[in-house]
Amino acid sequence: SAVISQKPSRDICQRGTSLTIQCQVDSQVTMMFWYRQQPGQSLTLIATANQGSEATYESGFVIDKFPISRPNLTFSTLTVSNMSPEDSSIYLCSVVGDSSYEQYFGPGTRLTVT
Amino acid sequence: AQSVTQLDSQVPVFEEAPVELRCNYSSSVSVYLFWYVQYPNQGLQLLLKYLSGSTLVKGINGFEAEFNKSQTSFHLRKPSVHISDTAEYFCAVSGWETSGSRLTFGEGTQLTVNP
To answer: Fewer C-beta within 10 Å: chain A N or C terminus?
Structure first.
């Protein structure tokens, strides 16, 4: 399985600002995913990020709010723009394993917006 | 579209007791099923997976799950739980109709193991 790290691990931000979350993988992977986990809830897929192409966003998520970069096969960033308290969540990145069906997750970034 | 239903939001048990966390799914095509565990303040860890073959799947930490196609279920079991098993457990499904890798998660089951 891949080893995934995320930065920052947690942050407290003010309303109206933006935060960029980094996801680093210890091996080259084709597909990376970004998820949101709101307090006490399950995971919701934000977007799929493939290297060399635009990210694919799920219904309810837009590029202006959650811009994603994928500059190479080991790194991706997710920006949460113009934040509001409703954006307070855990944001997790994941990568696809060797079987192409299992996913491995980073430790998450815990975001609180005040 | 695929969906996953975890039938219990909270399961309290005593240490060394057996436990079953229930998961049902709906899909019109072949599926791949997963159980993940999330310990407090941590990310998700893959417990076990069913891709094909034997319907009884063994995972880490003594957990196992059984794929039942006729009942569209993938229940997670452990014969004797420990305090350290206290965590949130998520059932997830992916399949051909969602481009293979896209996971759909259930709402989660909080397992609390009491001494």
So the answer is: C
